[in-house]
Amino acid sequence: MHPKHLLTLSLLILFFLAGCTAVTTTTTASTTAATTGAATTNQTTTVPTTLPTETTTTETTTAAPVDGIAAVTGLEDAVVIRNHYFHVLKGVAATSDEGVDLTPYIKILGSVDFGTLGTYELQYELAYGEDVFSTTRTVVVTDGTYVAPTGSRPAASATTVVIGEGSYRSGTASSITHPVNPAYIEADLLSRAIPSNGWWTTLLVNNYGGTGNGIYTNPLKSGFANQGVEITNPGEGFVQYWNPEGLKTMAQFSLSLKDLYLRTDGLAAGYMTRVIDYGASSVKVAMRNVSSTEDEMVVTYAQGSPYIFAEVASRQGITLTAGSDGVDNYEYYDLSGNRITDSSYLGDAIIVKMVRRHVGYVCTPPANVGSPIYADRYFLVNAPTDTVFTIGSGNHPFGLLNRLSMTLGEGNYLSIAAIPSLAEAGFYHDHGYAFIAGSTIDYDVDHANSIVSTDYLMNVQNVSGIVAEPALALLPHQYRNSEVPLTTHTFRTVRGTLKVMAGSAFSTVLPFHGMLPGFTLPEDATFSAATVASYLADLDSRTEIADTENFLNAEGPYWNSKALYPLAQGTIIADQIGDATLRDGFIAKLEYLLEDWFTYDGDTDPKYLYYNRAWGSVYYSDNTFNTAGELSDHSFTHGYLVYAAAVVAMYDPAFIAAYGGMVDILLNDYMTPEKGDAYYAYLRSFDAWAGHSWAHGFGSFAEGNNLESTSEALNSWVAGYLWGLATGDEARVDAAIYGFVTETSAIKEYWFDYEEENWADGYANYAAVAGMVWGGKYDYATWFGANPTFIYGIQWLPAGEFLTNYALDETETERLTTIFETYLAAKNGVIDTWYSNMWSVLAIYNPEAALAAFDANKILTDDYPSELAGAYWMIHALATLDRRTVEITMEIHPRVASSLYVQSDGSVVAMVWNPGGASETVRFFDGETLVSTATVDAHSFTKVTVLPGV
Fold first, then answer.
1. Which of 414, 221, 403, 182 is nearest to 305 (CA)?
2. Which of 79, 709, 714, 762 registers the highest number of CB atoms within 10 A of its CB?
3. Number of domains in the chain
4. Is the pLDDT of residue 468 over 70?
5. Greater model confidence, 211 or 428
């Protein structure tokens, strides 16, 4: 488990020392003045007691020191120039005695009204182990000359960077496509590589984040417009059906109607938005008038928060305007549920009810749109004490009272929440002043127990001076894998039912059951080594280096990197059947293309890698699928190249020394495990809160960002894992394991709805897959067609051993069976294309049926004939291995991969992959019981018996 793994909802971390006596520690934190920028703790430790042994002798044991708070820095008193936002965590850091970053555990009490002259006090608190730190910080808001933050990304003229025998291009390169620079971000954030592929990253490249583009925090949707900050409750949405060319498609989504807009009178039309801070699951956006440095309003978004948090420069002239389309009327209530009929109300909260809000249509297949669906929508506004709320009409076409004007009382803050009902207003008011000031998500891979722990930590700022925990709405993949106590409050959204917790931290735990690059030699009765050798020969002839017509030489990086996958699998297969000639020939072809991409030979070179200094990202000289212009699909494309490189490294270790540095820059682009790096963004393609990758670099769509091919996203983790094993990079191995298990859990929830609880009935009744998942939508479709084979199949390519993680136990196998049978029903029982992929998936739960269906001629005349050998191999391997098991696990090893299967006779076998240059010993466990060990030779892929059959 993570050393900071949370055992309670408080920030107090309890460490249990098995076999050691208790150590009592009293801690005080003192500062000489409010201007102290660093604080240390003073510890007094009692003498340990003794523990008796069973033989009545006494043994004295001294406990290991309990980790405590070493230092808290950055808490000097501060002076703020009026109308410029003061970030309570800017420059603040805390560390433990053992070097653990404790900054995510800091809580703040109080607020700074940055638009009002005066002196403000903030209380900072931190509890860790047995230490408690507390200090007061004074912040003065005054008039004066404002000095804007400074910073820049490194820039350079055209240059070639050489790594080993490889090289890449950087600097000026006008001959290729580049993304726009991230222009809408505060300068002091430029010391780190700039994130992309996120839920909010459209804000980096467009003012307002782009016209009409959605920022989905789930449960809320937001965005920016001249009217102000949009605050919409999209709810579950509705399901609409289409019938293009006789193919049934559908989508679950919400209408484009906007519920509320929040703005201040000081904001002019065309104001500017700028990202001024971001964390793992939160972002702060300043709203400024053109050519002004003054912050009229600062909005904080946090994934999972029912609130949008706002802080304003002026307490007067704040308006909340409800949309006029698709709503019958507007009503206002106090916290007790009493309707407010006067035009003015004094208090600290008010509820806006949108009566009979239009939220969708009753639709039926094939493409019928029926009557409208209506629902009441409630929004709670939490404000300072003695706020004056004035109810009026905001130019409503029928004069209805859709405008709420506010003069804030004792503070410049407010939060606005979507709430399911009037009865729940009290709960969301109590937690509505616990603002999210920062967010951190950390993972830890427990090798001994083969589990991944993820800690979700929120810095809380109690702006009203009253201590309270935030309310967080957890996603299904989070609460199903957590023991965190939940309230009875929920939200029904496009992601299913979100369940609300009251607290600033929680943890999830996921098991890791292994992943491999392929399969060992099949042994079923119908397998023929001669047959697979003939298929390998066909693969060899189809991928001639000089043939410009095959994918191997395609201009697009996605297509020719994808062509490496069957070659890499063919390398493994050839080695398994003992055909060194074919194996070495495949390796030569793999190295040909890899070295082509990994070497820059000048401006006329058609294939090379480019490092963009403005973003800290790597892309290709070719912009197919906007991998360069929009930083899209990096994990997909990079993953194929890295996978091929990892297979080559197994059989040709010299490749690591020659081109390993080039492989690393691809991995660094989408899978850097280090936070805050200046050159590469942390896990660039991965959304740690959502639990999955996003494909588009910016996410500039009305429905937010999107991900289509989950299997290619998973393959990118497999690739990073295999490369980490080959190079002994344990940090990379752990990052890949974390990403793989987390993304797999999210895919099962949102793309396949394993629990059958997340999709709306109108969707689940007609499909068992989401072809594309967006921030606020499910599509039963793909970017390239509506054929059900494409919609299901895009989640199952490339076909590989890692896909068996969709059927780890009997329950999951039953769900995969249902999914595949639903697909077949959509095709009237006939697979029409992508045979290699579909039969490979069929073999996971029914290898006999896959063997019976297999037809080499169909694959050879299909889209991907190069996959013939791989499909034959996978189907026969699964016929040999039978099914996955989770009862026995291999202790995670930094140099060896495995997957375990239970066979029909009850025996448990493990395929083990050791790409390193030394033999390794691996251990297998049934729970905590060691059941078997095995020594795996260097550079070997073999099968071992873990438990004998009966």
1. 221
2. 714
3. 2
4. yes
5. 428
One-letter-per-residue 3-state SS of 871-886: HHHHHHHHHHHCEECC
Domain's final residue, options 382, 408, 432: 432
SS3 21: coil
Angle 592-598-601 from CA coordinates, rounded to 5°: 95
Residue 320 · residue 407 · CB < 8 Å: no
**Pairing relation of β-strands 403-407 and 318-322?**
antiparallel
Pinpoint the alpha helices (H) of 466-528.
476-479
Q: What distance in Å separates the CA atoms of residue 511 and residue 892, rounded to the nearest whole number?
A: 11
Rounded CA gap, 11 and 862, in Å?
57
In a domain, 405, yes or no: yes
Q: What is the sign, positive or negative, of the torsion defined by CA atoms of 561, 565, 566, 571?
A: positive
- CA angle, 387 then 392 then 397, to 5°: 150
> How far is the C-alpha of 503 from the C-alpha of 485, rounded, in Å?
9
Q: For the stretch 252-265, what's the b/e string if a residue is b when 16 or more beta carbons lie within 10 angstroms of its beta carbon?
A: bbbbebbbbbbbbe
Q: pLDDT tens-digit profile of 850-883?
A: 999 999 999 999 999 999 999 999 999 999 999 9
Packing angle between helix 580-597 and helix 529-542, nearest 10 degrees? 30
> 925: domain CATH number?
2.60.40
Element (H, E) at 730: helix 730-750
Q: Is the per-residue pLDDT at 25 higher than 60?
A: no
State how far the Cα of 127 lies from the Cα of 451, in Å rounded to an integer: 27
Distance CA 204, CA 699 (A): 10
Opening angle at CA 287, ends 281 and 288, nearest 5 = 145
* Strand, helix or coil for residue 680: coil
* Structural domain contains residue 8: no
The pTM (predicted TM-score) of the whole model is 0.93
CB 192 within 8 A of CB 182: no
Ramachandran area for residue 885 (φ above 0: left; ψ -120 to 50: alpha; else beta): beta
Q: Are the C-beta atoms of 139 and 176 separated by less than 8 Å? A: no
- What is the dihedral sign for C-alpha 43, 44, 46, 47? positive
Alpha carbon 877 to chain centroid, angstroms: 33
Q: How confident is the model at residue 683 (pLDDT cuts 50, 70, 90)?
A: very high
Backbone angles phi and psi of 707, in degrees to 5 = -145, 130
Give the SS3 label for residue 150.
Answer: coil
**Helix, coil or strand: residue 178:** coil
Mean per-residue pLDDT for 419-445? 98
Question: 389 lies in which domain range?
Answer: 192-432
Higher-pLDDT residue of 34, 600: 600
Average pLDDT across the chain, whole number: 93
- Taking the CA of residue 769 as centre, how many other CA atoms within 13 Å lie in the half-sphere pointing to its CB? 30
As a whole-number percent, the residues of the chain with pLDDT over 70 amount to 93
CA nearest neighbour of 442 among 915, 3, 938, 944: 3
* Domain final position from 392, 414, 432: 432
The answer to whether residue 4 is domain-embedded is no
For 243-270, what is each residue's pLDDT tens digit? 998 899 999 999 999 999 999 999 999 9
Domain assignment present for 77: no
Tokens representing 57 are: 């002798």
**CATH number for position 347:** 2.70.98.30
